[in-house]
């Protein structure tokens, strides 16, 4: 670690990491979406976003939403690093379900010193993603580079492996039942306007294009 990260309140950390998770293509996160995710009133969210802006962690644009400054992004990355390292530990070493691991990691992420996170990372063999395929920031707060695309963007005939699935519970269960889960290898065999034919293991499966858009893949083989 280069320089010590000065502490901020647990509430601020919660906002920073939630904004980081909700951000899509560097677009501001709508306050209504942030309020819904945190189950907090829009008024309270508005007040906190202005406080984050005053402290240099966020940039608030009325009627557009909130985005993180470089300082805010770094703070969020440190929290995500701890959170996702704990998810790996709790799933791989203790056998918890991902939901149990996620809920527990939400508590541990705020109380884990940097030196403990460093040792946890080394103990786990320096993982780059959590059990859901989400990237783990490095110790310097930088997210590893990746070349991820949606399954619908994968060229026909090109092999890939699944990084993550963000489908609803029922649709996610369908994908999991047919082997489409983080780490699984698959290939798109054919594409139509409303569906894809994919090869998963030794089986072929037709899935709706809308459902395929919830699956993120990477074309290089896992290390």
Strand and helix map with partners:
Blueprint (H helix, E strand, L loop, with lengths): L9 H13 L8 H8 L3 H13 L3 E4 L3 E4 L1 H23 L5 H11 L5 H10 L24 E3 L8 E7 L3 H9 L7 E7 L3 E6 L2 E6 H4 L2 E4 L5
Antiparallel strand pairs: 1-2, 3-8, 4-5, 4-8, 5-6, 6-7
Helix pairs in contact: 1-2, 1-4, 2-3, 4-5, 4-6
Account of the protein in words:
This protein is an alpha+beta fold and 223 residues long. The chain folds into two domains: 1-141, Arc Repressor Mutant, subunit A (Orthogonal Bundle); 148-218, Ferrous iron transport protein A (FeoA) (SH3 type barrels), CATH 2.30.30.90. The chain contains eight helices and eight strands. The strands form two sheets. The protein has a six-stranded antiparallel β-sheet. A two-stranded antiparallel ribbon has the order 1-2.
Output the keywords.
2 domains, two-stranded antiparallel ribbon, SH3 type barrels, six-stranded antiparallel sheet, 8 strands, 223 residues
> What name is given to the CATH topology of the largest domain?
Arc Repressor Mutant, subunit A
Number of domains: 2
Which H/E pattern describes the elements?
A: HHHEEHHHEEHEEEHE
Q: How many distinct beta strands?
A: 8
Question: Which overall shape is indicated by the principal axes computed on the Cα atoms?
Answer: globular
Average per-residue pLDDT, rounded, comes to 86
Query: Total helix count?
Result: 8
- For the CA atoms, what is the radius of gyration? 19 Å
The major beta sheet can be summarized as: 6 strands, antiparallel
Q: What is the share of helical residues?
A: 40-55%
Determine and state the CATH class of the largest domain: Mainly Alpha
Distance between the termini: 26 Å
Structural class assignment:
alpha+beta
Catalogue the unreliable spans: none
Query: Superfamily at the CATH H level of the largest domain?
Result: Winged helix-like DNA-binding domain superfamily/Winged helix DNA-binding domain
* CATH architecture label of the largest domain: Orthogonal Bundle
The largest sheet has its strands arranged as 3-8-4-5-6-7
